[in-house]
Design brief:
Elements (H helix, E strand, L loop, with lengths): L11 H4 L13 H15 L11 H8 L3 H13 L3 E4 L3 E4 L2 H5 L14 E2 L9 H9 L22 H10 L12 E4 L2 H12 L5 E5 L4 H10 L2 E5 L1 E2 L2 E2 L1 H11 L3 E4 L13 H14 L2 E5 L13 H4 L4 E6 L11 E4 L2 H15 L4 H12 L2 H24 L3 E3 L6 E5 L6 H10 L2 E2 L1 E2 L13 E5 L6 H17 L9
Parallel strand pairs: 3-15, 5-6, 5-9, 9-10, 10-11
Antiparallel strand pairs: 1-2, 4-12, 7-8, 11-12, 13-14, 14-17, 16-17
Helix pairs in contact: 2-4, 3-4, 7-14, 8-9, 8-13, 10-11, 15-17
Length: 477
């Protein structure tokens, strides 16, 4: 049994955790320690900037091992409550950081958590296909090139396969407009590095894919949010922002928007393109979810090919572990993106390019995507059955859903309480651009659950919390 009274110490950092009480449930010790520290942060006992004691001192005071403390603090860093920096130790993160979880990019391995916070495949279709493909890869005509250097834009044979696959969407089948990347995020990084200068303004939906926030900070760009309605970015707000801020580019996720699942209508797409054309604003179209959508409207790149950089990839529709993304752009911009990629990593792995090429050429990619869509339809039906009485915005083949929270819930508080009940989701603040108040919601990744039973259990837990309201829940912090 842990003796919290052992924290009574003259050492000031230790006194910050004095009388720390761990829950007496059967959960892992590291999680109970993480929850106890999170309660101190929520109550203000641990303030922003407070430095925690060294891990060995915490372990000694509590009578537990250092590994347990390390895992607890790592969990709190993932939640955005703590930050660790060389020379400063581990400190309580600033309020905006605590309310906005970090850029989560991998599912939790906690045995007691159903992690619905990260997009991952809903089936093992990719692994099954890969098991069939690998034994015969050595016979492929391009296998011998795997040991060679390749041009920064990627091998021509792989770009040709992507260009042909995307012919109806963007680029007209021209491989000279294609640059391969190690995932769409990498492609977006190279695009920003190629076409922007430090200090320039980038516009995006007021709630959008959290990766653009991180990249704009790295590149020294001024990311500004544009007002939305239930149809997506408002053209009038976009027009006003262009006139006032003179942005270099606008970042849009037009199909199955992350996190709201909005698909821009054809009318809305034409209105936004007209604004961009009038103000000469580059459109960065992140369309990674498009292959999962049923009959989406024409891409922005097809409406304005000379002013649009189209970014796609195989992570969301096939498997994130494949790490194959692409940029389709006007040739001049494509050359700049390739130059940025060369500085970044020289070129992507030809192994990923060859796997992706074979999946596309043999029709396997289409079959995997259809399998994923069938499973997503089942999962979305479960979500509708359990949460349909609440304000949920989604699509039958979306990997995720957007839940607008009823009073008195707030995004961060609801996500925190869900995690205490063994369900991980991301609050709306994680997707907010700037520091303006955002709608109180959470993103639910239905494809992330390991099984339909896990999904039902997690969604049922959320429904209970939504119906109760946090003021009625004992022990809520």
């Amino acid at each position: 049994m842990l003796d919290a009274n052992r924290l009574n110490s003259p050492n000031p950092p230790i006194r910050m955790l004095q009388d720390l009480q761990l829950a007496s449930d059967e959960g892992p010790v590291y999680r109970r320690l993480a929850d106890a520290i999170a309660e101190r942060i929520a109550a203000g006992t641990l303030a922003v900037g407070d430095r925690l004691p060294p891990q060995r001192e915490i372990a000694r005071a509590l009578g537990i091992n250092v590994t347990t403390v390390t895992r607890a603090l790592s969990t709190l860093q993932e939640r955005g409550l703590l930050e660790a920096r060389p020379g400063r130790g581990t400190t309580v993160a600033a309020r905006d950081a605590s309310e906005r979880p970090g850029f989560v990019s991998a599912p939790s391995d906690d045995s007691g958590v159903v992690d619905l916070s990260v997009n991952r495949p809903a089936t093992s279709a990719y692994l099954d296909a890969l098991a069939q493909l690998l034994p015969r890869m050595a016979k492929h005509r391009h296998y011998a090139t795997l040991q060679d250097y390749h041009p920064p834009e990627g091998p021509l044979w792989a770009r040709a396969a992507i260009a042909e696959w995307m012919r109806p969407v963007a680029g007209d089948g021209d491989p000279g407009r294609v640059v391969l990347a190690a995932g769409a995020q990498h492609g977006l990084d190279c695009v920003l590095g190629a076409v922007t200068k430090q200090g320039e303004v980038i516009l995006a939906d007021e709630v959008t894919y959290q990766g653009i926030n991180a990249l704009c900070r790295v590149h020294g760009l001024d990311l500004r949010g544009v007002a939305m309605d239930r149809g997506g970015m408002r053209p009038d707000a976009f027009d006003a922002a262009c006139a006032q801020l003179r942005p270099r580019a606008v970042f849009l996720v037009p199909t199955l928007h992350n996190p709201t699942t909005i698909t821009l209508s054809a009318e809305r797409r034409n209105e936004l393109v007209a604004v961009a054309r009038r103000h000469n604003v580059l459109i960065v179209e992140d369309d990674v979810y498009r292959p999962l959508a049923d009959n989406p409207p024409p891409s922005l790149a097809s409406l304005e090919p000379e002013l649009t950089v189209h970014i796609g990839g195989l992570s969301k529709c096939i498997a994130p572990g494949l790490r194959l993304g692409f940029v389709i752009a006007p040739r001049a911009i494509a050359g700049q993106v390739a130059a940025a990629l060369r500085i970044n990593c020289w070129s992507i792995s030809p192994m990923a390019a060859l796997i992706g090429t074979q999946l596309l050429e043999e029709g396997t990619a289409a079959r995997i995507i259809e399998t994923q869509k069938q499973e997503l339809r089942l999962r979305q039906a479960v979500l509708t059955d359990i949460l349909g009485g609440f304000d949920v915005q989604t699509h039958p083949t979306s990997t995720h859903a957007w839940l607008r929270l009823p009073e008195p819930w707030r995004g961060a508080g609801f996500a925190r309480t869900c995690l205490q009940r063994g369900v991980a989701v991301l609050p709306g603040d994680a997707f907010a651009v700037g520091r303006e108040p955002v709608q109180h919601g959470v993103r639910i990744n239905v494809g992330a659950a390991r099984s339909l039973d896990d999904l039902r259990m997690a969604l049922s837990t959320m429904a209970e919390l939504l119906a109760a309201g946090h003021l009625q829940l004992p022990g809520f912090v």
